[in-house]
Amino acid sequence: MAKLRKVEDDVLIERLSKKFKDVGFEGASMAMLSDAAGLTKSSLYHRFPEGKEQIAEEVLKHTRRYLDAEVFPVLDGNLPPAQKMDFFASAMSQIYLHGAESCLLNMLSPPRGQTNSCGDAIAATFRQLLASLTNVAKQSGATADAAQVRAEQVLIELQGALVVSRGVADLAIFKRMLARLPNIILHNRDPI
Amino acid sequence: MAKLRKVEDDVLIERLSKKFKDVGFEGASMAMLSDAAGLTKSSLYHRFPEGKEQIAEEVLKHTRRYLDAEVFPVLDGNLPPAQKMDFFASAMSQIYLHGAESCLLNMLSPPRGQTNSCGDAIAATFRQLLASLTNVAKQSGATADAAQVRAEQVLIELQGALVVSRGVADLAIFKRMLARLPNIILHNRDPI
DNA sequence: GTCTATAATATGATAGAC
DNA sequence: GTCTATCATATTATAGAC
Fold it and tell me: Is the pLDDT assigned to residue B151 strictly greater than 60?
């Protein structure tokens, strides 16, 4: 039988995830991550022998599992588009704590020019989000090209709102973005 | 008379700025910044006695001076709104190298919960951008509330497009965002 | 599985020669 | 103003006791 775990896997991942969201990959040291986890550095290395990069990978996998289990099935399911997008906006508001928490996919992105295992997982998750949102837009009547642009705009506004609302320390900006989010997919008028 | 400078101030700031844009504040060590600058660490400390934070501040000031000299006068000037926004989109495309370079205001943002001298400069610059863009939207016929939302959306889409196009390594996403940018200010329809 | 102790390296920062 | 040399600290990582 396995030895007693002071901190359960899920709790551990949540705590590490929070730290990464706050300070980013480069900003998080093993000492900070240990503190956040409630374990010593050595214990952290025992759970993640390859260190910080492995922690980042596991944290990303955890996020991906959540999306695969709770979000993509709804977007890819049989609900009317409007209900799908209301659910999506609500889920994003929860995930990002109404704009108070940064996006892991952004905070763990490798520097420009570089590429690592996190970069691949991040790209794959962004692409799945784009694909599922594109399908909702098509379901909502958009042409293939328009659907892609609408999906891109949703992801862009989510990420951008997190950056801007952090930059000016104003969560209302994120809230106003969320309000227009469903309509981007459901009824995005083309430029004049 | 002053001693000979191996690297001119403007060139130095440009090089340091590039490094910060690539790897962020936490990701940039004094050693990396020295390498990028083409000077030793000691020389860098001579030019910036307070170290990395001072470098970040100076780099932000340099960006702000550019905006004050080249961008805000146009947005706040007497051109028709459409011309202002065409100029703005073009300027943003240049600044961000068509989506290949991250935003300094984002990459130098302090971690959530923290606040430093950079955070204040970043917030101030974001707010001035919002103010000037809001006025262009008003000039274009928007109500005060609508104008504010349009300005926010422009900043959000700029920042978000940089994040997403980096995440999926696709500059076309930034380009498509730029194409719809002017119209957000000029003719942003309200949600249904 | 967790911990203390420790080693090797990287980093921020300074002193002093040229 | 730039450089080499140096130092204190922080960081990554491992060894070994419990």
Answer: yes
Residue with tokens 């940018």: B181
Whole-prediction pTM value? 0.96
| pLDDT confidence of residue A18 | 98
Q: What is the SS3 string spanning B9-28?
A: HHHHHHHHHHHHHHHHHHHC
Q: In strand D, which positions have an atom below 7 A from any protein CB?
A: 1-5, 10-16
Listed as ranges, the nucleotides of chain C within 7 A of a protein C-beta are 1-5, 10-16
Q: How confident is the model over A14-36, as pLDDT tens digits?
A: 999 999 999 999 999 999 999 99
Percentage of chain B lying above the pLDDT 90 cut: 92
Question: Which superfamily, per CATH, for B56-186?
Answer: Tetracycline Repressor, domain 2 (1.10.357.10)
Q: Determine the Cα–Cα distance for residues B33 and B141; give it in Å rounded to an integer.
A: 46
Domain map of chain B by residue range? 56-186
Mutate: best of B163, B174, B177, B181, partner A, most A CBs <10 A? B163
CATH number of A57-186: 1.10.357.10
For the cut 90, the answer to whether the pLDDT of residue A2 exceeds it is no
Residue A63 C-alpha from the chain's centroid: 7
